Amino acid sequence: MSNRPIYLDNHATTPVDERVLAAMLPYFTEHFGNPSSIGHVYGWEAEAAIKKSREILAEAINATPEEIVFTSGATEANNLAIKGVAEAYFQKGQHIITVATEHNAVLDPCKYLQTLGFEITILPVQQDGIINLSELEKALRSDTILVSVMAANNEIGVLQPLAEIGAICRERDVIFHSDAAQAIAKIPLDVQAMKIDLMSLTAHKLYGPKGVGALYVRRRNPRVQIAPQQHGGGHERGMRSGTLYTPQIVGFGKAVEIALQEQATETQRLTQLRQSLWKELSQLEGIHLNGHPTQRLAGNLNISVEGVDGAALLLGLQPVMAISSGAACSSATTAPSHVLTALGHSEKLAYASIRFGIGRFNTAEEIDRVAQHTIATIGSLRKQAMMV
Ligand SMILES: *Cc1c(COP(=O)(O)O)cnc(C)c1O
């Protein structure tokens, strides 16, 4: 273990917490029943465990258990929300608003809908990564059916003003969806206070298992309709068919429960680690902090570095730390991060960017080593560049 690089890619995914794993294990073997089997104890056990997770999730966002629809993750939840609303409300209107810095799991379903004739407005962000609320108001039309704005950005950690956006959408009678994959149980979320109608969640950014997530679907004030995107046995009140994966759902609930219990102390600890990392790195010249300095996830630090080649920078850092450049989630492509270019960065600067995702299992010692190695790497790359 000790020879492996320090894991600092916690926005891409996180290890499963041992406590989460322990909660999941009995549901693979002993309590393996199909939660839809209503005639025997095997089914009841599974159903009871799922009910508990549903309650934990609902409470975490101030919803009711009936408003939680389990999915395979946030990608599926985003698809279900966006395509589901488009299909259910197309007679009311065919205009959707989203934001340039959204995850591809939001942007791509919107692009797909465009091919079907929907009109998509993509709002820009300000230099700090936050949307301009008056631009949102201006973009709203009488045929707008959906506004989709994420809670916390997966690259730059920026938190969008959900309550303000929710108030604007509610006043105009427009459904508000938020991708909260990075935010759930890390920042306070309240679908009532924030007037959120649909919210996408996932477990694996929160020390839960991969392959499970949920969509919150508002049932009253107002009742939101979504057309199912997967048909079958009518599970999840017809919105998402398919046998529920009990172990994953149990793990999701446990992960949220733990994160909520530890939210205050963990936020404080991660903020301190991030600040100490930034304090070290910002001593160098030509380093930019990407995203709002305080309106961001506690564990996120994203920087751009002038005067170095992005690929060489990553290569130099990789032996010591597992990190991503800004273009993390689309790392299969060579395009610069759409999030960083949305902040106004040139392609070159966008490439020379590092996303530090500090998580539950990182220590102050590790962050110190990361700071020292990053400073040394940038220094030697700049020296080389000057000698050429
Ligand atoms: C990770 C992530 C997703 C995708 O979630 P999966 O559960 O992996 O499908 C969507 N949106 C954001 C903001 C993310 O960070």
Automatic annotation (TrEMBL):
It catalyses: (sulfur carrier)-H + L-cysteine = (sulfur carrier)-SH + L-alanine. GO terms for molecular function: 2 iron, 2 sulfur cluster binding; cysteine desulfurase activity; metal ion binding. Its cofactor is pyridoxal 5'-phosphate. Its EC number is 2.8.1.7. Residues 6-370 form the Aminotransferase class V domain. It comes from the Bacteria. It is an enzyme of class 2 (transferase). Keywords: 2Fe-2S, Iron, Iron-sulfur, Metal-binding, Pyridoxal phosphate, Transferase. PROSITE patterns: AA_TRANSFER_CLASS_5. Belongs to the class-V pyridoxal-phosphate-dependent aminotransferase family. NifS/IscS subfamily. This is cysteine desulfurase. The gene is nifS.
